[in-house]
Amino acid sequence: MEADSSLRAAMLTYTVKNGRDLRETYEKLRYGRKRLAAAMRRARSSSSRNNEMEFSKVLGGIRSLEVTNHGRGWHPHEHDYSLIRGNLDWEKIGWEWSKAVGEKSLVNERRCDNGVANGLKEVLKYIVDFDDEALTWSQRMEVYRMVKGNIKTVSSWGILRGVKVQDADSDDLSEMSGPYVEIIARWLFKEGRFGFEFEEEHKRLEYTIKKAS
């Protein structure tokens, strides 16, 4: 955004109606995004004002899938850290998204005024919430079985697709001085627990967090 001051960042959330079947409801969301992307490509390549789209103001983003179920059916939705030029007409946005999905559906916006890092942390925080009240373990496994195949849960598009970032080794660490501990965290799938390892006084210690029964 430093190179183009007309752009602003916001988190857009794409939703569809809740459904009883997770896969079927997710496919409705995926189908909507696919049709919306195709319509945006046609609008950009057309010289006719009749084909203009409000979504053309959204130039690119980094999106991630989240799945919830609060007792009213499955609610898969996508959070998208988006770069937008100008303000959006929400009546037009809602109409264009509903047309892509094939039924009345919603998009909402949350401004990212606290920097890029905070905006991305909100967008990419998780696929499912591991709060005890969010989903049962059976429901979490249903989400896992759905996404473990060929579903891409995080992706970039538009002007943010293929952005090159500098090597982490070239980061400026001059302000980070003093003692530190290197921690290795890994999920021990067969044992159903996280394992944390770190070096302390040349001795390797291991701590574990087990899944609540």
How would you sum up this structure in a few lines?
The protein has helices spanning 22-45, 90-101, 116-123, 137-147, and strands at 7-15, 58-68, 75-85, 107-111, 154-158, 183-188, 193-200, 203-210. The protein folds into two domains: 7-158; 179-213. It has a five-stranded antiparallel sheet, with helices on both faces. The chain has a three-stranded antiparallel sheet with strand order 6-7-8, with no helix packed on it.
Describe this structure as you would to a colleague.
With 213 residues, this protein is α+β, with helices and mostly antiparallel strands. It has two domains: 152 residues; 35 residues. The chain is 26% helix and 30% strand. The protein has four helices and eight strands; from the N terminus they run βαββαβααββββ. The strands form two sheets. A five-stranded antiparallel beta sheet has the order 4-1-3-2-5, with helices on both faces. β6 and β7 form a beta hairpin. The longest helix has 24 residues. It is globular, with a radius of gyration of 21 Å. The model has no long low-confidence stretch (mean pLDDT 84).
Which features does this protein show?
alpha+beta; 213 residues; 5-stranded antiparallel beta sheet; 3-stranded antiparallel beta sheet; 8 strands
